[in-house]
From TrEMBL:
PANTHER family documented for this protein: N-ACETYLGLUCOSAMINE-6-PHOSPHATE DEACETYLASE (PTHR11113:SF14)
Name of this chain's protein: N-acetylglucosamine-6-phosphate deacetylase
An example molecular function term from Gene Ontology annotations: N-acetylglucosamine-6-phosphate deacetylase activity
UniProt keyword Hydrolase, yes or no: yes
Pfam family, one: Amidohydro_1
Domain Amidohydrolase-related: 55-382
Enzyme Commission (EC) number: 3.5.1.25
Source organism of the structure: Actinacidiphila acididurans
Keyword check for Electron transport: no
SUPFAM superfamilies per UniProt: Composite domain of metallo-dependent hydrolases, Metallo-dependent hydrolases
Biological classification of the source: Bacteria, Bacillati, Actinomycetota, Actinomycetes, Kitasatosporales
Family according to the record: Belongs to the metallo-dependent hydrolases superfamily. NagA family.
Family matches, as InterPro entries: Amidohydro-rel, GlcNAc_6-P_deAcase, Metal-dep_hydrolase_composite, Metal_Hydrolase
Length: 386
């Protein structure tokens, strides 16, 4: 008769723990196998964090990420993409959606097939198409020659190329075919995101009514808020159906603008993203972003031609620390923005986004200065606390 084996239980104790019900001082998290378990008596290993000023939060969830560790999700091989995934994982992102940039439809479809394999392996949580269905007036770091109107047939082609793993498509809904494509995406269960847009307030409202539910990096690559022409920003902030992405790196948004977004939308409608490119976790230098050349200097990525900001070099642990220590956002609200809300948008709230029994054992341990000292993903340490 084969011996009976038991799954190892590990208890993390003595830390501040951020739960859906609030912040618990001197709390405990029990991990059994790949899941968080109820705290019950029995044989277990203990990781004692008492006296270290540590905080345990859910693993971070990034909805919008183009690469890292020197690797691109748009043009990289499977091995290169996994390098980028591991880089962000070491910075606390336990769930990651791979974002593309504007390329030809055929090139995007081919890359989507590769990314879909990595979703099926469990390394990625899905695919986000940012471009080519965006406004040339607000193109940012996208090749204008490759932009196109959001024809529903083309949108469907890219969704189908992702083999059921397309999670989000960013588009400028004011372009011909835009509203029809928003309705198509909503019907297919894919998030339609308003971004890289020159839409008016009224056109943005129409897109939301058609099914758009996300603002792609709010404030960036869209008309500014004006008192007689409120544009897309006012429409996206005011509507309870919309979650707004924010890049909290100190470059993309002034702290006062971040405060405005949080105050207007509320903590349940904010999702921190990185919009990271290859240089995240890697360093300054010259990079490719799709067909575009990018120079990263002092951590800021800009197109060589034109100087537009080209994504970020942000990692979500840095965004978390900045939100708490610089922006003075309440700890539970930061957790909502960086874990709970994006998990809900991905339809994964039953598995990730909060620290609750039965959910994946995805968690981040931060020290008293809110620097990352530990990362666990599905019960395995990615970064083990000292």
């Amino acid at each position: 008769m084969a011996p009976v084996t038991t799954t190892q239980r590990t208890v993390l104790s003595g830390a501040r723990v951020v739960l859906p019900s609030g912040v618990v001082e001197g709390g405990r998290i029990t991990v059994e196998g790949t899941r968080i378990a109820a705290d019950e008596p029995g044989e277990q290993a203990t990781v004692d964090l008492a006296g270290q000023g540590c905080t345990i939060v859910p693993g971070f969830v990034d909805l919008h990420n183009h690469g890292g560790g020197g690797a691109s999700f748009t043009s990289g091989t499977a091995e290169e993409i996994l390098t980028g995934v591991r880089t962000h994982r070491e910075h606390g992102t336990t769930t990651l959606v791979a974002s593309t940039v504007t390329e030809s439809l055929d090139a995007l479809a081919r890359q989507a097939g590769l990314l879909a394999e990595l979703v099926e392996q469990g390394d990625l949580a899905g695919i986000h198409y940012e471009g080519p269905f965006i406004s040339p007036c607000r193109k940012g770091a996208h090749d204008e020659a490759l932009l196109r109107h959001p024809d529903p047939a083309d949108v469907r082609k890219l969704v189908e190329a992702a083999r059921g793993h397309a999670r989000m498509v960013t588009l400028a809904a004011e372009l011909p075919g835009g509203i029809e494509s928003v309705r198509l995406l909503a019907g297919l269960g894919v998030v339609a995101a308003v971004g890289h847009t020159d839409a008016t307030y009224e056109q943005t409202r129409e897109a939301i009514d058609a099914g758009a539910t996300v603002a792609t990096h709010l404030f960036n690559a869209m008309p500014p808020l004006q008192h007689r022409q409120p544009g897309p920003i006012a429409a996206l902030l005011e509507d309870e159906r919309v979650t707004v992405e924010l890049i909290n790196d100190g470059t993309h948004l002034h702290p006062a603008v971040l405060e405005l977004a949080f105050g207007s939308a509320g903590a349940d409608r904010v999702a921190f993203i990185t919009d990271a490119m290859d240089a995240a976790g890697f360093g300054d230098g010259m990079y490719d972003l799709g067909p575009m050349k990018v120079e990263v200097r002092e951590g800021v990525a800009r197109l060589v031609e034109g100087g537009s900001i080209a994504g970020s070099t942000l990692t979500l642990d840095a965004a978390f620390k900045r939100a708490v220590t610089v922006d003075r956002i309440a700890l539970p609200d930061v957790v909502r923005a960086i874990s709970t809300n994006p998990a809900r948008l991905l339809g994964l709230s039953d598995r990730i986004g909060t620290l609750e029994p039965g959910k994946d054992a995805d968690l981040v341990v931060l020290d008293e200065a809110y620097d990352l000292v530990g990362v666990m993903r599905r019960g395995e340490w990615v970064v083990r606390p000292a």
